[in-house]
Amino acid sequence: MADSNGRPWWAHAVFYQVYPRSFCDRNGDGVGDLDGVTARLDYLTTLGVDAIWLNPVMVSPMADHGYDVSDPRDVDPLFGGIEALDRLIDAAHARDIRVTMDLVPNHTSSAHPWFRAALASPPGSPERERYIFRDGSGPDGSQPPNNWLSIFGGPAWTRVTESDGRAEQWYLHLFDAEQPDLNWENPEVYDDLEKTLRFWLERGVDGFRIDVAHGMSKPRDLPDMDIVKAEMLLADMDNDPRFNHEGVHDVHRHIRTVLNDYPDAVAIGEVWVYDNEQFARYLRADELHLGFNFRMVRAEFEAADIRHAIENSLAAAAIEKATPTWTLSNHDVDREVTRYGGGDVGLARAWAMALVMLALPGAVFLYNGEELGLANVDLPDEALQDPVWERSGHTRRGRDGARVPMPWEGSTPPFGFSTNPDTWLPMPQEWSTLTVEKQLRDPGSTLSFYRSAMRLRASRKEFDGTAIEWLEAPEDVLVYRVVDGGLVCVLNAGSQPVALPAGDVLLASAALVDGKLPPNAAAWLT
Ligand code: NOJ
Questions:
Q1: Cα–Cα distance, 32 to 27 (Å, whole number)
Q2: pLDDT at 227
Q3: Where are the compositionally biased (Basic and acidic residues) regions (predicted)?
C-alpha cells in the first residue's frame, strides 16, 4: 500500500524498535513480553509511530537474548508464545501500526535440533554440512582452523568432542559459542529460511529486520583476518573476510523473491558496511528494501562529522535510488545521550540530533526509551548479562547499560514496567523523573518534544522530499533544506549562539537566546 505521496508505506515511516525484554512485563516475571507490548500500544499511537520492529522473540535459550534461535517458527514462552504475537499483530494493525520482526539467518542456537544432530553425526556428514565445521590447524588439529575472532571476544571457533574418539573438529561462530554459523552454501539452509519467512508473513507480519545481513556467506577458503581492535559492531568491517562476502547477495535475492509474494512486506538489513558502493549493493532492486546505515551512530556531535554521515548515507542510498535510513541508537550501542557527553549537555545534543534526523528524507528508526531521553545505566558487575562481558574476559562491559527496562509510571523501580521488583536488569531510582507518566504531563519533557516533532513530520508537507541541499552556514553549524518540501533544519554544534536564517520557527530543541539558536541545539524553520 502506498502513502498519499505514492511511496511504499515504509519509505517515510518512523519505526519504533521494541526490545521485548525491556518494554513492558505483563506476567510479572521481571522480563518484558508481547502482551506487555500490546498493553502499551496506545502509547505508541500517542507517540505517532508507523511500525514496530521487535527484536527476536522466537524460541531461544537466550544466550544472546533471543539472537540464538532454537526454533525459528515459534515464539518463546518467555514472551508469551505464538498466541501473544497474534494478539499483538491484530491489536497493532487495528491501530494502523505495522509489525516487523527480527530474523536471524546467520546462525542458530546451539540448542537448535540441526546443531544437536550435527554434533551427534560424524565429520563430513550431511548434518555437519548445515554449519561450518573444519579440522583444526597444527599437527594434531588442536589449533583453530583460522585466526578469526568472535565479535563478542575470543576465538570464533570452538572445538567439539567426537563420540568415536577421532580428531575433534571445530565449528565457526562469529558471535557466542552458543550461536553456530550456518553454512549458506547448503540449499537446505535456503529452503528452511524460506519456510520461516512464509510462516511469519502468513501470520500477518509486515516484514523483517535481518540480523547480520552482511554476514551469512563466508569465503570458501576462510582466509585469516587482519587482527584489528574487534570492538563489537562498531569496528571497521570493510575488508574483513568474516563479512560482506559476495555470496551474501544470493541470500538477499532469495529473501526478496519470497517477499515479492507479499508486496507490502519490507526487508531491512543490518548492514555494518561503510563503503558506499559496497553498501549500495545490498539495496539493489532485487535485494533489500532498506539497509541500516550506521554512519549517524558513529558520528561525533561535531558539524563536519555529522554532515559527512548525512552526505554519505544519502549518497550510498542514491546509488541504487533506494530509500535512506536514519538511526541514532539501538540495543547494540550506547544510548546517544551518553555518547554525546551525558548529563544536560548529552540530553540537549540528543534533542538536537532528533530534529536533524527526523527532517531527513527516508525512514527513521527510534529505539525504545530514546523518546524519554534515557541515558546508559552504569550497572554493577553482578547485574551484567550480555555474553560480551564473559567472552571478553571482563574487559568489555557489553550492551546491558542501553537495555535497561522502560520506566512507565510511579516513583520507585520497577516504575510500572513489571509487578516484580526483580527486573532482569535493575532500574535506577533516578529514573523516577523520567517516567512516561511524568513526561506526558510535562510539556517541556523529552517525550513531549518527540511527540511534537513526530506530529509535524507526519503532517506537514514541508517534510516531503527525497533530497536535501546544504545552505551556507558558519563553522560548527549545519543548515540543510529539504528539496521540494522546503523545511530548513539548523544545527548549532558550536559554542556560541547563532543567528537563524529567515523563516518561521516550527520547533526548536532549546529556547532561543535573543532570537539566536544556542549551542547544542537545533531548529526547524519554514
Ligand atoms: C546483531 C544484533 O543486533 C546483536 O544484538 C546480536 O548480538 C548479533 N547481531 C548476533 O545475532
A1: 8
A2: 77
A3: 392-402
Residue 332 Cα: closest atom of ligand 1: 5
Number of other CB atoms surrounding residue 422 within 10 Å:
10
Average pLDDT over residues 173-193: 98
Q: What is the mean pLDDT of residues 503-509?
A: 98
- CA of residue 151 to ligand 1 center, whole Å: 9
246 catalytic? Reply is no
Which residues are paired to 181 by β-bridges? 107
Q: Which of 270, 336, 370, 371 is catalytic?
A: 270
Classify residue 151 as left (phi > 0), alpha (psi -120 to 50) or beta.
Answer: alpha
Residue 95 Cα to ligand 1 middle (Å) = 29
| Cα gap 366→370, rounded to integer Å | 7
CATH 3.90.400.10 domain locations along the chain: 113-172
Residue 394 has pLDDT above 70, yes or no: yes
SS3 state of residue 339 = helix
How much is the average pLDDT of 374-381? 98
Show the cell assigned to 42: 496506545
Indicate the top mutation candidate among 104, 151, 175 to test ligand 1's pocket, ranked by most ligand atoms within 8 A of CB: 175
Architecture of domain 14-106+187-453: Alpha-Beta Barrel (3.20)
What share of the chain in percent tops pLDDT 70?
97
The pLDDT-based confidence of 167 (bands split at 50, 70, 90) is low
Question: 364 near 292, Cβ under 8 Å?
Answer: no
d(CA 298, CA 237): 13
Q: Does domain 113-172 have CATH number 3.90.400.10?
A: yes
Alpha carbons within 13 angstroms on the beta-carbon side of residue 401 total 19
- Topology annotation, domain 465-525: Immunoglobulin-like (2.60.40)
In this predicted model, what pLDDT tens digit does every residue of 297-310 receive, in sequence order?
999 999 999 999 99
State yes or no: is 188 an active-site residue: no
Classify residue 292 as left (phi > 0), alpha (psi -120 to 50) or beta: beta
For atom 11 of ligand 1, which residue has the closest CA? 67
Euclidean distance between CA atoms 443 and 283, whole angstroms: 40
**Within the chain, which residue ranges are assigned CATH 3.20.20.80?**
14-106+187-453
On average, the pLDDT of the chain sits at: 96
Q: Which protein residues touch ligand 1 with a CB less than 6 Å away? A: 64, 67, 104, 175, 211-212, 270, 331-332
pLDDT at 470 over 90: yes
